[in-house]
Amino acid sequence: MTTPLWHACDNCRAILYQPRLALELGVCPECGRHGRVSACGRLAQLLDSGSAELLPMPDVLSDPLEFVDSSPYASRIQSARRATGLDDAIVCARGLIDGQPIIAAVMDFGFMGGSLGSAVGEAITLAAETALAERTPLLIVSASGGARMQEGTLSLMQMAKTSSALARLDEAGILTISLVTDPTYGGVAASFATLGDVILAEPRARLGFAGPRVIEQTIRQSLPPGFQTAEFLLEHGLIDAIVPRGAIRSTLARLLRMGAPAVGGQLPAVEAAVVRDPGRLPELDPWEVARLSRHLGRPTTLDHLSSVFDDFLELRGDRLGADCPAIIGGFGLLGEVPVIVVGTQKGHGAAELTAHGFGMATPAGYRKAARLMRLAGKLGLPVVTLVDTPGAYPGVTAEEHGQAMAIAENIRLMTTLPVPVVAVITGEGGSGGALALAVANRVLIFSNGTYSVISPEGCASILWKDSAKAPTAARKLRIDARELLRFGIVDGVIPEPPGGAHNAPAEASRALRAALASELATMLDCPAGELRDQRRGRFRGFGTPPDTDDPRVKRDVDATRAGR
Q1: Domain 278-525 homologous superfamily, CATH
Q2: Which residues are within 8 A (CB) of 258 and not within 5 positions of it... i.e. 6 or more apart?
Q3: What are the boundaries of each domain within the chain?
Q4: Which of 493, 448, 27 shows the shortest CA–CA distance to 279?
Q5: What is the pLDDT of residues 401-433, one digit of tens each?
Q6: What are φ and ψ of residue 93, in 5° steps?
Q7: β-bridge partners, 494
Q8: Tell me, what's the pLDDT at 545?
Q9: Cβ partners under 8 Å of residue 460, min gap 6
Q10: Mean pLDDT value of segment 197-226
Q11: Using N-to-C axis directions, what is the helix angle for 403-416 and 528-540, rounded to 10°?
């Protein structure tokens, strides 16, 4: 049987020339609809030519319940095999993406709606076990209507079986990537499809536990526009990114490059000019420094990300239902060394400031940061944080969603990370909202940055009952870089261009790049235990006399000084 030369788009009904549609990877050039792709077709799109080595399909119970509905289950299986040429609704392979090894498990909706039965569950599990044995990242491409009813509770058990297999990869520090395609529902959505370290989705791909019709019939309500689509999921912090089909392969290649420690990778060979002696810093008026730290021309986190790092791939969402635009984070590449970068984002004008919540993170922002830092710990990647915030968002919704708890969890988490952590105050370091990203082995600050328990205006209003006393409060709080270095709150100061970072943003970013490379170079080979001890010791000593005789404090403080 010959393949028709013309095809009508299922969405816009445009008549498409089949060879052109193939060149477009199955994406309608008229409306952008991402049509379904077979498992073998998907492997051909993603893997380097000639690199695919199919993994054998497992032996499983073929018809454990001897199930019959309008036709016997065994007959349905045979029909699906004839129609697709597959043994079941999945194909697994070992291969390369841009020369980098990957284990891929790709579902095929054409085989009984991509339903999850024993064969699919066993194949996913074996693929994960192969990735574990070979210490190779695992990619799962999902397309499914849910669990296979004809296998009863055995199909339900595949959810636990596959989730357990992915948990072993978490324990082993192996990167897992999920690519959600349309549709992905039920038991697949509620197990391996949403457990990846990184979750990507094609445009308009639908993902959910219950289907829209079931939900509407159950709750007797109309669903919002775009419900359960990739765009809806991204807005609600449930996936990391929407990637058009033509960019998936290159995006996966970037993830693979940045998702594992670079053994022997080189940091940028640039000389840092970090000041560690407060006597070398000029005495500045803290209030004037506070004003400079807030200058709208200062480079933001997004500005630094594009200048400091050789590549950056943003990851979105807290995976709990929200995404906070005041926190930007993801994989970064500093020279040849992959890192996880997290930073607060303000903006250069009213529109940007509003869009990013004036750099004041919500609980979702701190939980997103925590998710990324846990990922760094799993993969063994250093963490870099860039802090420029007046403080955490103080609104009603933030309190309703546990702002204090989110900050506290971040502070505790950062004390436990088994990887190097460098924090840089690039502008304002406001209160607990800043500290939630600054519990680090090394804390640096730009020379016109500030770090304080409260804003000068807030302090003046509370203690002097007069906000006009803000300049006095700034001086009393000693929030400027020179005083912070003198008290050991920061470990070093990054000099700014004359007049401030806003006068030469590119120069400021170059100084930041050099400082990060210098700090990380001293810690990349440190064992996890030493990094944790040094970090805990650094904070253990604050508020105690430097010559204390308490052996517990002295031990931790000595460990910190030895690590510097």
Answers
A1: 2-enoyl-CoA Hydratase; Chain A, domain 1 (3.90.226.10)
A2: 311, 313, 331, 332, 333, 338
A3: 1-33, 36-258, 278-525
A4: 493
A5: 999 999 999 999 999 999 999 999 999 999 999
A6: -150, 155
A7: 446
A8: 76
A9: 466, 467, 468, 469, 470, 472, 473
A10: 92
A11: 130
Q: Helix, strand, coil: what percent of the chain each, to 5?
A: 45, 20, 35
Residue 185 neighbours by CB under 8 Å, 6+ apart: 144, 145, 146, 206, 207, 208, 209, 210, 211
State how far the Cα of 375 lies from the Cα of 234, in Å rounded to an integer. 19
479 vs 467: CA distance, rounded Å: 17
Residue (of 426, 368, 363) closest to 392 by Cα position: 363
**Pairing between strand 138-144 and 337-344?**
unpaired
Going by C-alpha positions, the residue among 443, 429, 441 that lies closest to residue 493 is 443
Is there a shared CATH topology between the 36-258 domain and the 278-525 domain? yes
pLDDT, one tens digit per residue, over 312-344 is: 999 999 999 999 999 999 999 999 999 999 999
Distance between CA atoms of 367 and 358, rounded to whole angstroms? 18
Could you give the CA distance from residue 370 to residue 251 in angstroms, rounded to a whole number? 23
Coil/strand/helix, residue 129: helix
C-alpha distances in angstroms, 468 versus 93, 291, 462, 472?
Answer: 68, 14, 12, 9
Predicted pLDDT at 338: 97
What are 61-97's pLDDT values in tens digits? 889 999 999 999 999 999 999 999 999 999 999 999 9
Phi, psi angles (nearest 5°) of residue 508? -65, -40
Three-class SS state of 317: coil
Packing angle, helices 505-521 and 301-308, rounded to 10: 70
Give the burial class of 498: count Cβ atoms within 10 A of its Cβ; 0-12 exposed, 13-18 middle, 19 or more buried. exposed
Picking from 409, 394, 385, the residue whose alpha carbon sits closest to that of residue 360 is: 394
Q: Regarding the domain delimited by 36-258, which CATH topology (the fold level of the hierarchy) does it fall under?
A: 2-enoyl-CoA Hydratase; Chain A, domain 1 (3.90.226)
Query: Does residue 189 have a pLDDT over 60?
Result: yes
